[in-house]
Amino acid sequence: MTTPYHPPVKYSVRIEGHRTSISLEPVFWDLLQAAAARRGVAVNTLVATIDAERIRSETPPGLAGAIRVWLVTHELQSPHEKGGGISTPAPWNS
Predict the structure, then answer these.
(1) One digit per residue, pLDDT tens: the chain, 94 residues?
(2) What region holds the Ribbon-helix-helix domain (predicted)?
(3) CA distance 15 to 79
């Protein structure tokens, strides 16, 4: 098994026809690919959606940071946490 601790890697994406690159740790890139696959969209499409969301925010973060935040808030939280309720901590958090 490879370690999840890896420095960011540059990945090329296309947003509204424009190529750009984002620097993400491979673990976040893998999560992004899985999230896109679950939604039945291309990674570029999901990144464009996250980019549009981030631009509308009061204090827009950089794109890579927005992707990480999106993944944590949309993919890694349990359904109970997404609803704003208190969840039971995982055994390793107790």
Answers:
(1) 467 889 999 999 999 999 999 999 999 999 999 999 999 999 999 999 999 999 999 999 999 999 999 999 998 876 555 554 434 444 443 3
(2) 9-74
(3) 29
For residues 22 and 67, what is the distance between their CA atoms, to the nearest angstrom? 9
Q: Which residues contact 47 (CB under 8 A, 6 or more apart)?
A: 13, 15, 22, 32, 63, 67
CA 22 to CA 54: how far, in whole Å?
Answer: 14
Instruction: State the pTM of this model.
Output: 0.78
Q: Measure CA 84 to chain center.
A: 19
Measuring CA to CA, how many Å separate 58 from each of 33, 55, 85? 27, 8, 25
Tokens of 19: 């190529």
